[in-house]
Design a protein that fits this description.
alpha/beta, Arc Repressor Mutant, subunit A, 2 domains, six-stranded parallel sheet, 10 helices, 6 strands, CheY-like_superfamily, DNA-binding
Length: 210
């Protein structure tokens, strides 16, 4: 398998290279140190697998999810393994929803990356044990005390997650932008969510968007 690796830390890339060489099934055809150089590399270098960090400094694509969706849009058939320090459950779910095949925790990469490469090579998903535990724990907590949104908050969250802006929602409901912003803030507060990415993940996990 031809592999491209991307991480903004040279030391991490050296570690990844050593682990990939150990697998004996892969050859590294390129390395990138950020989202912009990764997209440029993908456009010129064919590969069968992308192993990338989630959060790397960059211009247009510094947001990990935006980077993933760009890669998926242009290289839909290339399997992706994320090697990340993020253990945020909402982000993990959105990454899988974006078509990522495997997520490996950086602190477990030495033992688990070769397993992830093998799984992906066989067309199976893989997730680090520590991250699997975090997801399972979050599911238990979600079922035990699920916060409830008001009907208006629910509708605002659903529309935001489907791609509408606050201004578009305001004009749709013939309400002021500040009213919609307030409902969005109240919903996020109620759900214990602080970023739009997590709000989008919540909406997806709860069947508000498909």
């Amino acid at each position: 398998m031809r592999v491209i690796i991307a991480d903004d830390h040279p030391v991490v890339r050296i570690g990844l290279r050593m682990l990939i060489d150990l697998s004996r099934t892969c050859v590294i055809v390129g390395e990138a140190d950020g989202p912009d150089s990764l997209l440029s590399l993908l456009s010129t270098t064919p590969c069968d697998l992308l192993i990338t960090d989630f959060s790397m400094p960059g211009n247009q694509q510094a947001d990990g999810l935006k980077m993933l969706s760009t890669v998926r849009r242009h290289y839909a058939s290339t399997p992706i393994i994320l090697v990340t320090m993020f253990a945020n459950v909402a982000t993990l779910r959105v990454a899988f929803a974006q078509g990522v095949m495997a997520i490996v925790a950086k602190d477990a990469s030495a033992t688990e990356l070769p397993l992830a490469i093998k799984s992906v090579g066989e067309g199976r998903r893989f997730i680090s044990e520590s991250l699997r535990t975090a997801l399972a724990q979050a599911d238990v907590e979600a079922h035990s005390h699920s916060p409830s949104l008001s009907a208006k908050e629910h509708e605002v969250v659903r529309m935001l997650a489907s791609g509408m802006t606050v201004s578009e929602i305001a004009s749709y409901f013939k309400r002021s932008v500040s009213t919609i912003s307030k409902q969005k803030s109240m919903a996020m507060q109620r759900l214990g969510i602080s970023t739009d990415v997590d709000l989008f993940a919540y909406a997806r996990d709860n069947g508000m968007v498909h």
